[in-house]
Amino acid sequence: MGAVAGSRALIAPAAVAWAAYGGWLDLSEGWLFFLGHPASPWVFTAMAAVELVVDKLPATPSRKRPFPFASRVVWGAIAGAAIGVNAGGSNAGVWLAGLTAGGLGAVAGTLLGYAARRRMATAFGQDRPAALLEDMAALAAALFVVATARGAVAATIVEFIQSTLYGNP
Q1: Which of 29, 79, 84, 112 could bond to 1 as cystine, CB 3.0-4.6 Å?
Q2: pLDDT tens-digit readout, 145-155
Q3: Contact in structure between 109 and 7 (CB atoms under 8 Å)
């Protein structure tokens, strides 16, 4: 989910909020409860829609500037923690692994997404088609992550990350 936030900062929390709203993720307890509030999917979707429009404007600053970069890392980490909570319950190591993976994924998604979009824009001769393809890829990736978070796939991924980062089996 971090890589999704690296591409589009607000698609990640919107997808997590919709997954919680639909009963795919249980975020009713703990510090991520706000993502499970019934209004959250609507609020985050509205903000994500605005982000999708603003991204296409010529005056929009680069995602690599400090504030846009930091917001992507924060939302990627939060969305990653939500996936981790779903996979391992309240076990702090699991949501911390999700938080860490989400933040690192957002860093990678920001930098790699920027490079890929620049290459596509050069190939197309303009930025808009590249931006639209990036939008579609971010939406598809977000849907894939929340869909797989329902089952054992997410638990396996989070356990692997937890053991790799923290040495915990």
Answers
A1: 79
A2: 888 876 655 55
A3: yes
- The residue whose two tokens read 């500037």 is 65
Amino acid at 148: T
What does pTM read for this prediction? 0.84
The Cα–Cα gap between 132 and 136 comes to 6
Give the CA angle between residues 7, 10, 12 to the nearest 5°. 75
Please check whether residue 80 is in contact with residue 2, taking contact to mean a CB–CB distance below 8 angstroms: yes
CA separation for the pair 119, 17 (Å, rounded): 32
For the chain, how far is it from start to end, CA to CA, in angstroms? 23
Distance separating alpha carbons of residues 32 and 83, to the nearest angstrom:
10
Q: How far apart are CA 92 and CA 139, in angstroms?
A: 28
Model confidence pLDDT, tens digit, residues 94-131:
788 889 999 999 999 999 999 999 999 999 999 999 99
